[in-house]
Amino acid sequence: MDLFNYKADFKGFAPLAERIRPRNLEEFIGQRHILAEGSLLCRAIREDKISSVILWGPPGTGKTTLARIVAQTTNSHFVAFSAVLSGVKEIREIIKEARNQRQLFQKHTILFVDEIHRFNKAQQDSFLPHIEDGLITLIGATTENPSFEVNPPLLSRCRVLVFNHLEPDDLRKILEGALEKPERGLGNFRVDMDHTALDYLSKSAQGDARIALNALETAVLITKPDSDGVRKINVKIAGEAMQKKSPLYDKGGEEHYNIISALHKSMRGSDPDASCYWLARMLEAGEDPLYIARRMVRFASEDIGNADPRALQITVSAMEAFRFIGLPEGKLALAQAAIYLACAPKSNAVYVAYSAAKEDADKTGSLPVPLPIRNAPTKLMKDLKYGRGYKYAHNFESGFVRQDYLPDKLRGKTYYNPKGYGFEKVIKERLEEWREKSKKD
Question: When you count CB atoms within 10 A of the terminal residue's CB, does the N or C end of the chain come out lower?
């Protein structure tokens, strides 16, 4: 299926975003980091020497548009199709046609694959030999991180071009252009659009030109002309047209991990404001609240530990509170926990201690438990000296007595080193006192 085969008869029925797509590099707005005048990519397109690339970025940032510009610029045989609608059968047909184009017309083939991340490993692998021998140049477009979604062998043969969210200024230029163009845009309508309404659409679209243009078209169409035939659009109308766009968030993809990482690092960095923001981003986008709660419980032990033992209690309580009252009220319990965690003193001493102990446990295997601290419930065990020489701590002053509890090979090892702040300051002083007393015993 050729995605670019649109007949003029149907052009008027296409959405505004489709009608005003840039037709050449001069009309393209945004992505200046890769498409600035004189850039390597611009020269490659104009000179018809583009190599295999993966276009990676959010929706509505110009990936398909750039592929269409390549299609209209190149002298090569250009084929475009969607990974959603096509499979290996279609790829075989394209490869067969590419061979014909090369043999009969000495033409190279450029293949554009939209949503290439939808192809499985076998489908992606089917491109490799044909890219390798120069039969095709591949242009793939994806909203997903190629590191995870594109096979390494294919990725190594392609240059990755990162498309960013469009800036509000870029979106405003696109919207203004759409209002001015009579044939392809909205220029045939008499529109008086408030500057604040344009600003609102430019900022509310979250860098997505398609969202901005759809909202603009809706605003124009739902606004009745006044007696002079003018459609006056203000911020209120723009807001109705835009409605609410959920923040970009893919619960199964890269953005999911980016935002949970942002929450974790904001709490670790003791920033309650950023912590609250990233928590809201996830909750309002539909993330499972209990997933967030589990991550915060982990955080309470990993990044706070005994610097504030209440952190774990409060976070578990917040999780239980959410289970008890549910949505939407339960969000506040999670927000309370996130803010508390951000404001608590930080210590990774528990995490470091366990990691070091685990490493020794893995490395040394099943070391025997020292005889004095073994359990001795039977006569045989007692005869084998299980439990012999054990010192019952409560029989000694302050409930402390020096005794070896680690296996012989690990005797004297120290795993837990509390920090000198928060409640761990008290623990640190107590341990130092006990260790000093041990030296004297």
Answer: C
pLDDT digits (tens, 9 = 90+) for 190-200: 999 999 999 99
Per residue in 263-281, pLDDT (tens digit) is 999 999 999 999 999 999 9
Q: Is the whole-model pTM more than 0.85?
A: no
**Pair type for strands 109-114 and 77-82:** parallel
* CATH class of the region 168-242: mainly alpha
- Tell me the CATH architecture of domain 31-162: 3-Layer(aba) Sandwich (3.40)
* Cβ proximity of 101 and 77 under 8 Å: yes
8 A C-beta contact, residue 346 and residue 424: no
Question: 434: which 2 tokens?
Answer: 């006990």
Q: If 0-12 CB within 10 Å is exposed, 13-18 middle and 19+ buried, where does residue 365 land?
A: exposed
Distance from C-alpha of 57 to C-alpha of 190, rounded to nearest angstrom: 35
In the chain the first and final C-alpha atoms are separated, in Å, by 84
Which DSSP string do the residues of 19-62 spell out, in sequence order?
A: HT--SSTTT--S-HHHHSTT-HHHHHHHTT----EEEE--TTSS
